[in-house]
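Hi V.,

You were right to ask for the full record rather than a summary. Here it is.
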Amino acid sequence: MPSKSINEYSEVLAMLIKIDQNFHKHLTETEHTVITFLNAHVEDIMRMSITDVAEATYSSPATVSRTIKKCGFSGFAELRYRVARETESAGHDSLAVNEIFNKSLLEVTRTIDHLSQEIVLSVVKELRTAPRIYLLSRGLSEHVAEEFALKLQLLGCNVFANSDAATMQEITSNAKPHELVVIFTLSGKTPELVSAAENALSRGGRLITITCGPPDSPLAQLAHRTVFGYRHQHVSIRSVDAASRLPLYVISRILIDYLSQELQEEHDKAARKQAAQRSKHYFQVES
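Predicted structure:
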């Protein structure tokens, strides 16, 4: 089958972007340049990065991203994926790579869509007020929990991370009231984690579940707070549990970033107050 002409490719992109006269009135000159470039290089878009487009249009990745979002796309990855799907001459490799890009894009954007300000603030409050935090996980989720634990320790939290089934039963059986158990689990139903959660709750502990499982999963039902991520149904490796933990990483990063920001703001406020007090004392002594 012959390749599409540039005009035919432009028609594909125009159809996706739905350009009209009113739309153009709300674009800056640079944004016009970006759209003109995209229209003229549709076949190339499938193999380009957002940085490539920015360099070609003498703009910036932020400008390209803003322009694409004005066109109704969530970002460059979605535009590239849609173009690959619409163009008949897109090779197998190009289409396959863009399918993979889209998988990661969906996991990130839909995970963020699942989150609310209320759940982020409430989980951070639990992390800050807990006298001790136990981070429990199994399988590949252990790597997410280990990184989360390290960052909490750097922020001054009293944290103990564990992924051994026997050990987690022991420590949760001796948990004290108000101590916090945070569980990272893809499915929300791992038996050893469910048992550990029940142990902690029976001792008066608090429970946060971070999962891609359904709302009716055992660990979601048991938790005082549940944070849900979105997991794409496609799994690359099926012989073992090697499903993507990207949604769990996204959630852990958001929680750590907000906690860090909150602590930094409090530190800066305390420093300004201390500086003001020193200044006041200095002028009192001078007078």
